[in-house]
Amino acid sequence: MQKIMNQRLLTAVGVSTAAICLAAATCPAQAAVFEMLTTEGLNSTTTPTGLDVTFEQRWREPTIWNLVSGVDDGGDGIPNGLDEIIVDRTALANGNTDLSNEGMPDHSIAKLTGVGAPGTDIVFKQSANVTIGDMEILASADRFFINEERDQPLTINGVLSGSGDLEINRNGGFSNGVQRVDPVTGEEELILFTGAAPNTYTGNLFLTNGSGSQPAYFVADKVGAFGQAATVNLRSTNAGSLEAELQLTDNTIGGEGAFDDDATEVYLGSKAVLNVDAGVNEIIGSGKLFIDLLNTGTFTMVPDGLYTNAEDWIIGDGTITVGGSLFDPADLDQDGDVDDADFGIAFAAFTGPGGVSNSPADLDGDGDVDDADFGIAFAAFTGPGGGPGVVPEPTSLALLGLGGLMIARRRRA
Question: Cα–Cα distance between 49 and 127 in angstroms, integer?
């Protein structure tokens, strides 16, 4: 994946592949980019049970793939590993053909580029765990629809981007009943958003539970998990289903959290619940949280305030704040004071002027963590257990640690 990113960067600044190869002793092969062919019934004429398509193009068959660029590292004509895929079914007038990984073992791809078309775009069957690196959803009149069957995990561990609408649906229920963890393998049966880089997605995201009499578990395991999504919609779509649960992990402490409180409206529909880990205070913008847990067809706006698991739509020991944060921005660990612990978080995020950071320690919002941000933190300093309006001088120990760290970082730079 790093080679792909490096190639794109070099190409963007005008360095051609040929020039790169001439400058190197050997020319490394680029990972392949495959596109799914949309010829109906290319290798399957079986009508999938319960789906809105007539034909399934089977991932494991080389005949359904067109090699657009790069080199197939597996040599089998099937995308996997560092390969990328493009799924665009818009050429089909009736949307009768989807992509299915039926019969595949566990597999991964570096990137999925999707264009929504009528019906189901991809079906991930119960036979395989799937990991996707980056996922880009391009603008389209229809949602890009991924159907995750049964109890297999789906992990997106790169950057989710694009402005097209996306729906990820858990369908078919769990083979072990309603348990989140498979009792045989010990594997958690999750649809997981994770990875190091925040997502940049700006479309409408739908996380749905379409299974019968079963729950669905989604997890936002990083800050910026939903980018700047216009909306995030969580609900069960089957009358017999149990809850559609979205877990917010401890990685969402401080800053925007999983949701961008300026950009994203959150809709909790039928049987939706937020599972907020202990210590997490997820902030949702004022007037941007709506609930309709009983599926009445009318969403009600949740007033500004601090909410706990006393609400029907929250489980776990964390909290949801609707509206402005109840904490000073410099209170990075959100424990009600600005003390050495907060400076420790800021120290770890320090970049110096002109660095790049999405850390909540970037208190002046200029994209880096530098002296200016520490100046803001100094002005807000309270010490342990302090409260608003109490601004004693920082301890000499904190000042000494700050100065030493800054000098050390500058020398390394």
Answer: 16
- Poorest-confidence range of 87-91, 199-203, 273-277, 355-359? 355-359
| Residue 97, strand partner residues | 55
Asked if 373 and 346 touch (Cβ cutoff 8 Å), the reply is yes
**Which is nearest to 87 in space by CA: 59, 60, 106?**
59
Residue 399 has φ and ψ, to the nearest 5°, of -60, -45
Which residue type does 282 have? Answer: E
Give Dmax over CA atoms of the chain in angstroms.
75
Residue with the two structure tokens 């004429």: 45
pTM, 2 dp: 0.74
* Predicted confidence (pLDDT) per residue in 287-345, tens digit: 999 999 999 999 999 999 999 999 999 999 999 999 866 667 788 777 778 888 888 88
Q: How far is CA 161 from CA 139, 226, 227, 357, in A?
A: 11, 9, 8, 19
Q: Is the pLDDT confidence value at 231 over 90?
A: yes
Task: Say if residue 296 is exposed, middle or buried (CB neighbours under 10 Å; 0-12, 13-18, 19+).
Answer: exposed
- The rounded distance, in Å, linking the Cα atoms of 125 and 50 is 13
